[in-house]
Amino acid sequence: MKKYFFSFVSCAAIFAAALTVSLSGCSFEDPAEPLEVDMTRTATIEGTLLWNNNTSTIPPNPAQSPSTTNPARVPTYTAPPAASINIVATIPYSALNPSASGIYTVPQSDITYSATDGKFTVKVPVGIDQSFNVVTINVSSFIGTRTVEDLSLPPDANPPRATKTQTGSWSLNGGPIVVPNVVAGTTALLPSNTHRLLNFQEGTAVGDNAP
Description:
single chain; about 210 residues; mainly beta; elongated; disordered N terminus; disordered C terminus
């Protein structure tokens, strides 16, 4: 009986070893491993991000005719600081490889942003058909401040009024940008070749626009 038992254990051990060798010879793709992306065909997307973080330059009553106490003033748009800007660009893997699924996130090394003028560039890979229209660009919401006129106080004899600082979240106005007709070897400017403004919402909670 003992001899039979040890023979059974020996057979089981041999079978397990053979199964291990057999499995080690197979190739399994790690689903968590990023798909290799071909960067030999690329396009560049350019745009500009601006904000108006000092609205005290806007008349408190735009309907009122410009006068000595209510001069014609216009918003001043500037580039947000680089430390606050996190641009996120994504492409469905299926646009790069029809048999793939999931989302490809453009690495930060392929994204530039200038706090001098707000201009940014995104270098993206382009699929085998040389073009697609599924590049989505977003800016992560962030907490910041904005200077506004304090309308609770009476206006000064001469503008500007007294100001106060608001704290809240800044996010991309209008939500994520979907860039159409991206073609390999070209530079695509955002719609209207202009800029996208950041929108301010008073409060300390970051908006739902964050990717």
